[in-house]
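Task card 7
Instruction: Convert sequence to structure tokens.
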Amino acid sequence: MRIRILASLVVLTVVAQVPALHPGAESVVAETVHASEVVHAGLATPVVPVPAAAPVVPVGPASRVQIGQPSVYLAFVGDTGTGNDRQRRVRDQLVRVSRAVPLQSVFLLGDNLYNSGESKHIMPRFVTMYEELMATGTVFHAGLGNHDVKKCKGAGFVPVPRDHSAYRPAADCWVAEQLARPEFGYPNGYRYYSIASGGTVPLVEVFVLDSNTLSAVQGVAGGPDGSQLDWLRGALSRSTAVWKIVAIHHPIYSPRSDRFLWAGRGADDEMRDLLEPIFVDRVDVVFQGHNHMYARLEPRNGVRYFVAGGGGQKPYKFRPDAMTIARSDGGKFNHFVVVRVTDEVFEYCVIDDSGATRDGGWFRHGDAVDTGFTEGSCPSLEAPSDES
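Output:
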């Protein structure tokens, strides 16, 4: 018996076995996919323990995770909802990953339905688009982007409601239909929420925000949405998860793009002033969309920031800066980020629309810098195999 890294032939063998290991439940309240997933609607909710996920082969320093540790697999992808071949190619790679490992959830980082969140696009650009992925047992949890509410106006209520009534009813505002669609995974129709996964003490909790109502720059509700900020502070304080992740559309840290004339398209400074004080000492990782590129930033006050807005739109390069990890490709490729967490390490791999690994690494709590994987490899997606 010996352990070996998966070759393409072995991947095909595993595909037929994964659905049995990765059943997936219909309810977001008690998903049982080798790790539990519980919606926190602002109150502490007990998490039901379930069997641990399948282990992976550790590659690299011996100080990394040992075989057999419970783990949770998640994916993060933004700006998907074009209905074009770019979205389909990224989708195909998500399906491939979900058949190789027990991918529990995909978190959409907003702009899920171009160009204005039209309800007529829900089926072709989301439900039908990802039906094969959902059939493997993977579920979706979405956040709203600016294009999902492009023609919506704030209702003007103070405090801002947590559901669709934050937006004024109108014939060209389809946010209520999006929040009500079960496949999008908005629990109770809430615009912001959290999902905890991985045991009695969760391995990971993801806090999904609606950035459209958080600053006057984005302008939907006139900002800031004080109720959402209060919820976030409370939810983070109550969380007992080993790892805490925020999923948000508009980035608070991002390099500027090379696209939008002289100004570029970067981060929302006003939103940063609101959110960063909440994130520091509470949040480990922030995944952001909006900018159609891949970028990984140097840790800021102990928090790691990613821009992962390459799920379907034509990508563009970022302008190099001191905060962003330099890349020869400028982050100009369609992609998603797959994450594996254990109680010791946080691993990430960036997979492009051809299936190539474009970035990857791991870190522990307290690490000042990440340890990179060997270029082009993703040990997180490799599984043990016995050979006589």
